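R.M. (postdoc): so does anyone remember the format we settled on? I'll just put the structure tokens first.
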């Protein structure tokens, strides 16, 4: 009997060692790093294309936006001081071209657009660029694909990772009450 109790006590003590935590499965994911590297190379290539366009265009003075687009003014409005603020209603026209000046979407095809600033979906470059222009101003913008339609394209005429050029004209800015008070 003592032997049986000793065996049971030994089994209980060994069995009560407590749960052993599971160790994480180590998986080396190089796909994320590879994606980052591809994106860096793509951006460098597109920036090189933009620099070539700027270098070859001695007629215009290009500016760099904080978002990463390059642009020059075709028409300035020196009398205006107000740029669109969130919630303002902006009436505008724009087109979409390739870097080789092939028209992808014409201004007529797109039509006149009424856009509530920061409240409606447009491609990122256009959303940011509208805020740089004043009423009755026109500018040509060069967008890397990350600011255009990105890795997805537009599911129609613009493919994957295509940088674009766009002529944007602000026709009218309707200030909202909050913007007027600020």
């Amino acid at each position: 009997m003592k032997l049986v109790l000793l065996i049971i006590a030994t089994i209980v003590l060994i069995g009560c060692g407590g749960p052993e935590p599971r160790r994480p499965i180590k998986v080396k994911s190089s796909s994320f790093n590879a994606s980052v590297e591809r994106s860096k190379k793509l951006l460098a290539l597109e920036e090189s294309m933009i620099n070539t366009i700027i270098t070859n265009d001695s007629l215009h003075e290009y500016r760099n936006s904080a978002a990463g687009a390059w642009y020059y003014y075709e028409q300035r409005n020196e009398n205006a001081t107000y740029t669109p603020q969130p919630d303002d209603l902006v009436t505008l026209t724009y087109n979409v071209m390739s870097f080789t000046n092939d028209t992808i979407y014409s201004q007529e095809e797109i039509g006149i657009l009424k856009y509530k600033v920061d409240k409606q979906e447009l491609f990122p470059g256009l959303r940011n660029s509208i805020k740089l222009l004043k009423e009755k101003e026109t500018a040509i913008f060069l967008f890397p694909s990350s600011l255009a339609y990105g890795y997805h394209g537009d599911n129609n005429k613009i493919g994957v990772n295509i940088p674009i050029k766009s002529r944007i004209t602000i026709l009218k800015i309707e200030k909202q009450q909050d913007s007027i008070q600020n």
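R.M.: ...and that's the designed sequence above, right after the tokens. Also worth knowing: The chain has a mean pLDDT of 89. The CA atoms of residues 62 and 72 lie 5 Å apart.
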